[in-house]
Each structure stands twice: as C-alpha cells, then as structure tokens.
Amino acid sequence: MKKTEDVLLTLSKIILASASPRRQAILRQLGIDFEVIAPNISENIDSDCEPKEFACRLSEIKADDVASKLAGDAIVIAADTIVVINDAILGKPASHCEAIDMLKQLQGSWHRVITGFTVIDTSGHIEKLISYETTEVKMRALTDEEIEAYVDSGEPFDKAGGYGAQGIGALLVEEIRGCYFNIIGLPVAKLNKELSAAGINLLSMQDFNKKNEN
C-alpha cells in the first residue's frame, strides 16, 4: 500500500457526489477542497432489503454514476441517508400530508438514522469502500399544532423522515445517541476511519491543502 503522502500527491481532486447543501457544509467545515457533481440516478431500488443495505446500495449507485463520468483521477464520495422506525424506511416526504404522517410516526419515540456511504478512488490506489453509520434519535412528543407549524415551514420536504436536526427541526429532537453528523447526512468520523484504514486521512488531506495554498 502506498503511503498517505504518496496517495495525496496523486489525487487531483475530491468529488462529492451529492447536491445536498448539508453534506457540502460538513466538508467545508473540515477545510477540505472539493467539487460537487450531483448523480443522475433513480432511487427506486428494492426497498425490501435491510435498511443498512438499502442506504449502502443507493450510495454505491450514486458514486458509480459520478465516477463513470470522470476523465481524471479523483476520490468520489457519495452518501444516502434514511430514517428507520419499526424497520420501516422513511424517505423524503412527497406531500404535505405525507410529511405530517411521518412526523406523527416519529414523535414521542426513538428511531434510527442510517447513512450509507461509498468512496471510489478512480486512480485505483484504494479499493471501493462501502460502509454505513447508525445514530439513534428520540423525537419529543409533539402536538398536532406543532407538527402543522413545522411542515408549513417547508423544511421537511428535502429531508429523510421529514425533519432536519440542523435546522428548525432541532426543536423537535429530545435526545441523540451516536454521531450527530450522521443525522445531517455525512458521518465524517466513520468516513475518516474507513479512509485511514485504506491509507488516506482527512486530517492529512486538510494539511496538504493548506500547504498548497501557501
């Protein structure tokens, strides 16, 4: 296996295969240079599989789609986040009524947030990485009026489970067990652990980028 520094020197860029502003904000917070290429895929895959397999498979499809369109060397990072309650997968609500129904299912109880992620190094220095992270979240008991007010805010409609813990939805969350960033959409600690095992550390990547700026 090549040393981390050798791998870093061969990489031309990091590609985030996601249009999610939340995942982009997380990478910016880490001080990592990256480009965004949104995948063009259908998310209608077999929902009868285990939730973690569902999230991982969707992340892999996203990463494969973007990686197949690249001409140069890059690391492609893709992720997919789902909310699971009683083994039922909750995606993004498609309507006002569906958002209300999701929140009524979640309120006053614990649920799981699972993010599957895939990393593809198009230069071939590391093998494809596929993994996931799980966080348990308890949503506080909500009144019908609170649910209506939150849905009327418009925030639920691009978020799995119909809420966002990093926005107004923070008012709905009572307790979190596990990685907070996983709820937002990119479990960076688990991602860095997997990359480090393969020879690439995001902290080293940050230092490398800063050296290039000087």
User: In terms of quaternary structure, what is this?
Assistant: single chain
Beta-strand fraction estimate: 15-25%
State the helix count. 8
Provide mean pLDDT, rounded.
88
What is the number of strand segments? 7
> Which series of helices and strands comes N to C?
HEHEHEEHEEHEHHH
Write down the overall geometry.
elongated
* Radius of gyration (Å): 18 Å
Structural class: alpha/beta
Please bin the fraction of helical residues. 25-40%
Low-confidence stretches: 1-11
Described by strand count, sense and barrel closure, the largest sheet is: 7 strands, mixed
Q: What is the first-to-last residue Cα distance?
A: 29 Å
Describe, in plain words, how this protein is organized in 3D.
It is a single chain. With 214 residues, the chain is an alpha/beta fold. Helices cover 38% and strands 22% of the residues. It contains 8 helices and 7 strands. Strands 1, 2, 3, 4, 5, 6 and 7 form a 7-stranded mixed β-sheet that branches. 36% of the residues are buried. The N terminus is likely disordered.
List the main descriptive attributes of the protein structure presented here.
214 residues, alpha/beta, seven-stranded mixed sheet, disordered N terminus
